[in-house]
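Bug #77: duplicate submission created two jobs. Keeping one. Sequence:
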Amino acid sequence: MKASVKMTSIRLDTKRADDAVKALGARNRSEAVHMALREVVALNKFKELMSKCGGKLKFEAHGK
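Kept job's structure:
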């Protein structure tokens, strides 16, 4: 899936943004914001899946 990237201007808490760069291993603030957005979207999808299917799925261990 090709990402759509558009130049924008937002107000950021620079200390928090710099902390996110370090925590995420990002190269810069922009990359940290993109990584954080992907993580939030993935977490939301996971929560929706768990609400919908939690406790209803069966898994077997590998090799059994």
